[in-house]
Structure formats: structure tokens, C-alpha cells
Amino acid sequence: MTNPNLTHLYFLLDRSGSMESIKDDTEGGFNAFVAEQRATAGECRVTLAQFDNEYEEVYRDRPIADVPRLELRPRGMTALLDSIGRLVSEAGARLAALPEDERPGSVVVGIMTDGHENASRELTHATVKAMIERQTKEYGWQFLYMGADQDAIEVGASIGVAPEHSMTYSRGKVAAMMAAASGNIGRYRTARAAGLSASEAGELMTFSEEQRHASSD
């Protein structure tokens, strides 16, 4: 049996050149997100990866108490599909290698970008969609897609993320978007620890209309 009190948060963060205009807000929003998750009951570990036209794992399987402050250095283009595929495949392989009682009972993957795919060379939307749908249906992973100044629901659907778990946000509302994601994840973690299934607790990850309004102009 997996550990019901352990959550592993995987976060994939866009650091392409267009993020420069919201660099400070993104750093502040992510750091506030981490602080709020630290205050949520239960064990939590974090893996952060960032991407432009290259993929970089910033840290892996870090206890949330030891997560450092985010420092973002925007550059490059947006290889979104290749980066999602790499994070999901590497995370799945690492978790599968663990003894069952050391695997997290809850896995949450947050994807945050301000641009459209323009640099992937290996994977297609269909391939990534199949990967995400498999992890969601077979293993109960929860995915959030947060996209700035785009139709995030449409983009999220193209890669297998449920519309209710996708959020369009404005460049000036990064803090509100991160607060919404953090609140939903916190409620999900609490519900899972209380014994709800991943699918039941997953309803708590739904972005409300109030949250969507607060995150847009």
C-alpha cells in the first residue's frame, strides 16, 4: 500500500525568454505557494523542473521544509511537449522503482507556462495526451495546467488535462493564480489524508469561477 500521508508535488515551470516580464511575480507566487504547502498537514516532497528549449531538473524529491526560494532566469524558447513528457516519464520510472510503502499516496503535477509550444522535437500533443491520461486514469495522478494570456482550457485539453483543472491567468495576476492552485492542492492533500480516493478528492482541485475571475483582468 502506498503512503496515504505522503504527497509528491512535481512542478514544471516555463523559463523561456517571454517570462522575463513576470519573473518577479512568478518567483514571489511560487515562494508563497511553497510556504502555504509547508503549513498543510502531512508529509510533502517536491521536484521542480524548468524548461525553455532545454529541460533542467532544479531539485528532486526534496522535503518541502528544505525547498529553496525560486530564482528564475528566463531565456530561450518553449519546448513544452518534450518537457512535460520527460517529467512524467522520469517521475513514473522513479516512483515505480520504490518499494510500494514508500510511494506517495498522492501525486500532483503542476505545469505553468506563458507561451505556446514552439520548440519540441520529440513528442506530439497526442503522445503527451496519452501519457497524462494514462497516469491520471491508472495511477490517480492529478494534473494542473496554468497558462498566461492563452486559452489554457483548450491547450490543457490538447495534452490530456481536464478543463476544470486548467486555468488561464493574466500576466499581472500570477499571485492570484498561484494562491488558487495552492489552496486547491492543500484541500486535495487534506482530503486524501482523510481517506478519500484520488478521484473523489480530485474534485477539490477544480478551479472555481471566483478563482478564475481573480486570476484574469
UniProtKB/TrEMBL annotation:
UniProt superkingdom: Bacteria
The name this protein goes by in its record: von Willebrand factor A
